[in-house]
Design a protein that fits this description.
Distance between the termini: 49 Å
Number of strands: 10
Order of helices and strands: HHHHEHEHEHEHEHEHHEEHHEHEHHH
Radius of gyration: 27 Å
Shape: flat
């Protein structure tokens, strides 16, 4: 509730201050720089309406409205300052530079006047807003709903430390013990269950942060726990050991905070995430329009190759574990899995003659542009798997669950390297590249993967 209301208030404040700053700039520029009389005309009204919308779009691409509760004064100052420079520069070149003036130095005065007025106006109201939000969070009532994992002396010690902080932003709603119930901790906060119930606890308790109170050197336990937490929406913090501190892994942003490592779960900046989704929709729309004749030809080819439907639908696991129907051109005979789920191989007799050709060129994947438009998939991302195989892989390597924290893709780094996996072992090998992609994903890497996918298609070297 606080989050939605805060976003609405900040949006209104940003729109008003952008309109006010543009109006003030327009008036002062006419009267003090150009020495003309100020008249309210259509240009003025157009600017008051359109310029604030452009500012709001810029703030959105920055990620300003993405997680209001995690903003703080210095971060908001940086966001405002950077946005002001970018926005003022764009406005200057688009709306101001073509004006006829008597002295080019007036351009500089106009630019710095716009920059100064906008920054001071916007940040003043933002400062008041964020101060109120921070104080309400620090009051405890609106703090981050936090789950503590661990019941050892370390967990008790950490809980006591957090509770005594002068500016505590964590509202610990309960704990999960990995080694049975700890009476010392249970006397202080509710015992919510064990690790087997963690997914349900995260949802039921609306958890925003998880603090794992076991040593970071206990890698096997940590890896298993972290893999089961929804990274996209929940902050994860762990206890550091001395090596973590000396190696620089511990990054403190609050001088009153407890000594914890906050795991950085997103390598792609928010503006790139927003742009990535725009590219997904734009490219998929163009691709579907251009490929309509191709779809018709392939549909005929599939029909001729063997009796059965043109398209093949199958349940796959997508973003945050959600099930969706993936769509492909059918490349196998009907009832190919009547004996249960089976992975395909190079000489799989279940694959039709035209199906082998389509798989080699990745042509069977082309209908998935529809999945991208629906939001089930992206152009680039880890390939979605079936729950049957995910259950097998997770027993061997729990980190596989990290791949469900982003939208799956039509193509991926692992797909470029391995193509279709023929067994669980190859899935695990492909997973390494997809995990590496997740830790380093950028738009530049996406374009590189798409480029190599196109090369594979034209060279017919797919597997």
């Amino acid at each position: 509730m606080l989050k939605n209301l805060a976003v609405l208030i900040l949006l209104i404040a940003d729109w008003l201050t952008a309109a006010i700053s543009w109006s003030a700039f327009y008036y002062l520029r006419k009267t003090t720089i150009e020495h003309q009389e100020f008249h309210v005309n259509d240009t003025f009204y157009l600017g008051v309406v359109l310029v604030p919308i452009a500012w709001i779009l810029l703030y959105y691409l920055q990620g300003t409205y993405h997680d209001i509760k995690r903003l703080y004064r210095f971060k908001l100052f940086n966001l405002t300052f950077i946005a002001t420079i970018i926005g003022s520069t764009l406005i200057f070149f688009i709306l101001i530079l073509d004006d006829i003036i008597s002295d080019y130095q007036l351009y500089y005065k106009s630019y710095f006047m716009l920059l100064g007025i906008h920054f001071l106006t916007v940040f003043l109201l933002r400062y008041v807003f964020i101060t109120v939000v921070v104080k309400r969070i620090q009051s405890g009532k609106y703090g981050f709903r936090t789950l503590l994992i661990g019941g050892s002396d370390k967990a008790v010690e950490l809980y006591n430390e957090i509770s005594k902080l002068p500016k505590n932003v964590n509202k610990i709603v309960g704990f999960i013990n990995i080694n049975g119930v700890d009476k010392h901790l249970q006397d202080r906060i509710p015992y919510l269950g064990n690790l087997n119930d963690i997914e349900q606890i995260l949802v039921n308790e609306k958890i925003e942060e998880v603090i794992i109170a076991i040593e970071s050197k206990e890698h096997d336990k940590l890896r298993s726990i972290i893999s089961r937490i929804q990274w996209g929406t929940i902050n994860i913090k762990i206890l550091p050991d001395m090596y973590d501190i000396l190696s620089g892994s511990v990054k403190m942003t609050n001088i009153f905070g407890a000594l914890l490592i906050q795991l950085d779960n997103e390598s792609m900046p928010f503006w790139q995430q927003a742009l990535k989704r725009f590219i997904d929709v734009f490219v998929s729309t163009i691709a579907i329009i251009i490929l309509l004749p191709f779809y018709l030809i392939m549909a005929i080819a599939v029909k001729i190759s063997s009796p059965g439907p043109v398209f093949f639908f199958q349940d796959r696991i997508g973003l945050n574990g959600e099930v969706f129907k993936i769509i492909k051109f059918r490349t196998m005979y009907v009832d190919a899995e009547k004996l249960g789920p089976q992975l395909s191989s190079t000489d799989d007799p279940r694959i039709t003659k035209i199906g082998k050709y389509m798989r080699k060129l990745r042509l069977d994947e082309f209908p998935q542009f529809l999945n991208v438009l629906k939001g089930d998939m992206s152009l680039v991302g880890p390939r979605p798997e079936r729950q049957f195989y995910i259950d097998q892989i997770v027993k061997i390597e729990p980190q596989f669950l990290h791949l469900t924290k982003v939208r799956p893709g039509i193509t991926s780094w692992g797909q470029v390297k391995y193509g279709y996996a023929e067994n669980v072992e190859q899935m695990l090998q492909r997973m390494k590249y997809d995990l590496l992609y997740m830790r380093n994903r950028t738009l530049a890497l996406d374009f590189k993967i798409m480029f190599y996918t196109i090369i594979i298609i034209f060279r017919a070297k797919g597997k």
